[in-house]
Amino acid sequence: MELPKLSAKFFKTAAGTEPVRDWLKSLPAAERKAVGDEIRVVQFGWPLGMPIVRKMESELWEVRIRLVHRIARVMFTVIDSEMVLLHGFIKQSAKTAQSDLELARRRKSLLNS
């Protein structure tokens, strides 16, 4: 059996919450499954490019997930062989909002401190 190239891990806040896990739990079951399936594709196929993964900047990528009536994104970084899920959201416009990018950047910077 093939092993994943990356293990997936949720970013954890200082308070111990896992924002991406909480976001996933808020989604309907079919959407949760779609997001999980795409994350698994990245885990087994890393490194990947478009249309599944887009590099946003150095050490920051997004998994692109097309749901039935909307689009989801999960931003992540890779540390050693771990895919750290930093931020998940439903896309509201054609361009990724600066606030979503900033949040992922801030969480990524906390991993290195």
Which labels suit this protein?
3 helices; 113 residues; 30% strand; 5 strands; single chain; alpha+beta; YaeB-like fold; five-stranded mixed sheet; globular
- Superfamily at the CATH H level? RelE-like
Please state the structural category: alpha+beta
**Roughly how many Å is the radius of gyration?**
13 Å
How many distinct folded domains?
Answer: 1
Largest sheet: 5 strands, mixed
Strand order of the largest sheet: 1-5-4-3-2
What is the helix content?
Answer: 25-40%
CATH architecture annotation:
2-Layer Sandwich
The CATH topology name reads YaeB-like fold
The end-to-end span amounts to: 36 Å
CATH classification class: Alpha Beta
The protein's oligomeric status is single chain
Total number of beta strands:
5
- Rounded mean pLDDT is 96
Describe the SSE topology.
Elements: E1 7-10, H1 19-26, H2 29-45, E2 53-57, E3 60-66, E4 71-79, E5 82-90, H3 98-111
Parallel strand pairs: 1-5
Antiparallel strand pairs: 2-3, 3-4, 4-5
Structural overview:
This protein has one domain: YaeB-like fold (2-Layer Sandwich), CATH 3.30.2310.20. 35% of the residues lie in helices and 30% in strands. The protein contains 3 helices and 5 strands; from the N terminus they run βααββββα. It has a 5-stranded mixed sheet. A hairpin with a 2-residue loop joins strand 4 and strand 5. The longest helix has 17 residues. The chain is globular.
